[in-house]
Design brief:
Layout: H1 6-14, H2 22-33, E1 39-40, E2 51-53, E3 58-63, H3 65-68, H4 83-106, E4 110-115, H5 116-124, H6 126-141, E5 147-150
Parallel strand pairs: 3-4, 4-5
Antiparallel strand pairs: 1-2, 2-3
């Protein structure tokens, strides 16, 4: 049983943004301070990546652990009410993410996925920021790597 009424729950869910989220803005500012230049919310690229490096042909997605079902993450729980609805919604999200990844890879676009829990750890520790930037630079310099996920569980 949900502790909120249907109207309260609807109001809460309607306030969840799909772009310009706090983790996304944090990643953008971190990359920009490190000297990276990119485009944001590129509508012309399949899957509408949060960040796009056109010269490197790299699409960056900042995934929320809850919505994109980060495997093994404590944030990727299933709500206790309306379970069937949520499981179907999460499965559709996972399927759509796979289609986006596969399509971008066939178009020659490499994909960098940054999980929300990694962003939270970066916000707490400067060492994690440095580790993140090392991974990003390594990914950019090794063009044979088609996809990289950044997380610290």
């Amino acid at each position: 049983m949900d502790i909120k009424s249907a109207e309260e729950r609807s109001r809460n869910m309607s306030r969840i943004r799909s772009s310009n989220t706090t983790p996304e803005i944090y990643i953008r500012s971190t990359l920009h301070r490190a000297g990276f230049r990119f485009r944001i919310n590129c509508g012309g690229i399949f899957g509408n990546p949060d960040i796009y490096f056109s010269k490197k042909k790299v699409a960056v997605f900042v995934h929320g652990c809850y919505w994109h079902r980060h495997s093994g993450c404590k944030c990727a729980y299933v709500p206790k009410s309306n379970v069937d609805f949520w499981i179907a919604k999460f499965e559709a999200n996972i399927k759509r993410d796979r289609i986006v990844l596969d399509t971008l890879r066939t178009q020659g676009i490499r994909v960098l996925i940054i999980w929300e829990c990694a962003v939270k750890q970066m916000q707490k520790s400067p060492d994690k920021i440095n580790e993140f930037l090392v991974k990003v630079r390594m990914f950019f310099s090794h063009e044979e790597i088609g996809c990289l996920e950044i997380d610290w569980r």
